[in-house]
Design brief:
single chain; Trna Endonuclease, Chain: A, domain 1; two-stranded antiparallel ribbon; 7 strands; disordered N terminus
Length: 128
């Protein structure tokens, strides 16, 4: 994998590339980007998007194999709790979205960046 002209130096660089690819996929399907990489004391929300009248908190996961379960199954109870708490802080910081229905989606990424494959699970878990 490359970013620009040099090799991908870190997993963070690779994660950013897969987030780019997932974002493009979601935009092609009608979602609008609101915020990228919202960070707080509970962790990070990869993408915050609008899907018509819903606010969508998106976790992007890359797995190069399904040997330990797919990308969506990799979002276990601890990660769901962190995402839920981070989303609550996001809504407190952005009261203009507080009245919108919310959902948590997981986008599993696989394949290669040249030929990506996505496993998009809408409403992957309930939180609010």
């Amino acid at each position: 994998m490359t970013r620009g002209t040099g090799p991908v130096a870190t997993s963070r660089d690779a994660g950013a590339l897969w987030e780019d690819a997932a974002l493009k996929h979601l935009v092609r399907h009608g979602l609008e980007l609101v915020t990228r990489n919202f960070t707080c004391r509970f962790g990070e929300i990869d993408l915050v998007m609008r899907d018509r009248d819903q606010l969508v908190f998106v976790e992007v996961r890359f797995r190069d194999s399904d040997g330990h379960g797919g990308s969506t199954s990799s979002v276990g109870p601890a990660k769901r709790a962190k995402l839920t708490r981070a989303a609550s802080l996001y809504l407190q910081a952005h009261p203009e979205f507080a009245q919108l229905p919310c959902r948590f989606d997981v986008v599993g990424c696989g394949g290669s960046l040249q030929a990506p494959a996505f496993d998009w699970t809408r409403a992957a878990f309930d939180a609010f």
